[in-house]
């Protein structure tokens, strides 16, 4: 073996921050030492790992091939070190990307159980829409993601965690709130506020109305669910949101849930990870804890 773990660590840091100077600071190395380690690794492997565009470092195809393998190598090295220093075997840090609904209603229970069962395992959480989480997993930003709906990218594994469904909501004083059943024609005449394109919720809603409603009057698109709920409560808009996000508001009679029998908006919330990510005991641990919660109905819809 001609390369060293230090060289692999330098490679991974530069890939993460796309900068030699930032990577050097994170690794507590000088910039010259970082550059030298990276140059030595490229020379030993006989291939360029980065394209240098000014100060920005972009992975070449060889660098993209190496990165998941480097991550696994560094993870295994960390586990060996922890195992021989008397720490728990399930310890370390994992970055989880979660969609808004999952982050608010499901992930807190999951982290609470992990904190109880595996106190040395730290889960860092980023909240993004489904499209960004998929890209983050592909870009190695997240070792694990929780998304709404499907991911059709062949580079990603997907496993269902639990089920939910979307509902159409309106203010209690909205004209549609008094009807037992709402037609597709009535939906087409309404004013809408919806999640932004790329959000899992929006993709499921668009798929549900495809071929049924030709012209939807969308006035505003927002990333944050509380904004949409507030606009519905205080305005003459309709919206489509996950039941998990609006269940309490419906129970408190702040908004009305409209009955539209023609629309099937059942959905899943799933874990995703790169197929070439190799074995990862932290990822497996988190998914095992999540399955335990789901089996006991602690993260399913009310």
UniProtKB/TrEMBL annotation:
Recorded hits in InterPro entries, A to Z, give:
LysR_HTH_N, LysR_subst-bd, WH-like_DNA-bd_sf, WH_DNA-bd_sf
Report the superkingdom from the record: Bacteria
Q: Name one GO molecular function term.
A: DNA-binding transcription factor activity
Q: Which UniProt keywords apply?
A: DNA-binding, Transcription, Transcription regulation
Q: Where is the HTH lysR-type domain?
A: 1-60
Ranges that cross the membrane: none
Q: Which family does it belong to?
A: Belongs to the LysR transcriptional regulatory family.
This chain's protein is named: LysR family transcriptional regulator
This chain's source organism reads Corallincola holothuriorum
